[in-house]
Amino acid sequence: MGLLDGKVTIITGAGNGLGAAYAKLFGKEGAKVLVNDLGGARDGSGGSIGAAQAVVDEIRAAGGEAIANGDDVSTMEGGQSIFDQAMAEWGRVDILINNAGILRDETFHKGSEANWDAVIKVHLKGTYCVTKPVWQWMRDNGGGVVVNTTSTSGLIGNFGQTNYGAAKAGIAGLTRNLAIEGRKYGIRVWGMSPGALTRMTSDLPRYREMTESGEDFPVTGQPDTIAQAMLYMCSDLSGDQTGKFMHVARQGVAELKVMRSKGWEPTHAYTAQEIADHYDEVFFPD
């Protein structure tokens, strides 16, 4: 028996990299998988259902059940069509993994509005568009699991990724709020912050340096390993946990969360000078 026997799963951006690893593992664990991928380049240009179909073929060859989808996650029509295809094929949706994304990295002062809009549309609006119809169905039918893909670029920050970081921070905010709203309906919501060597990350400085030096990339940062963390979140192994963010990368597995400092609690209308005087209480150590 698999950990996901009979569960219907939608995975966006599943034609390559992490999404493909999720899809193939979930297929092995008994899930019925809708593999969505627009099939474009890393910046979102072009498109073909071929990448999604190739993953579907692998899942079927291994004895699993899967279908391919090439709809655009960044439109309401695309999100609805993804949901409708899963419902027409299997009649339910138990798990949604919002993984689709593009990169158009640039520093803020050089950045264009077109690239800003494109990245926000695919990542943040795309998460909204696909989740909306699935959420309503889960809300009315006993719950499910939704995993949204965020990033340390948004949660912590990274040079040259202002558009991407803003989108991923927005997804984190959406995730926290959905977890609160979904609890009473049995919908568990997670945030996944992955750090893997894939087509999307291969030319980022920290990954490129390892590749150029001939250093072996740790198995803990490989898509097949990170997929195990996704399996944990979506299966009964994680119980009723919700509203948490897992960071899974070559350094290992960790939880990320927003922290509050000890704080200073004045009993009067304070001044800017007093904030400076209580710096060590208000702020975390530098």
From TrEMBL:
Family: Belongs to the short-chain dehydrogenases/reductases (SDR) family.
Gene3D superfamilies named in the record: NAD(P)-binding Rossmann-like Domain
Gene Ontology terms, MF aspect: oxidoreductase activity
InterPro entries on file: NAD(P)-bd_dom_sf, Peroxisomal_Beta-Oxidation, Sc_DH/Rdtase_CS, SDR_fam
Record key words, sorted: Oxidoreductase
Domain of life: Bacteria
Protein name: Short-chain dehydrogenase
Keyword presence, Cell membrane: no
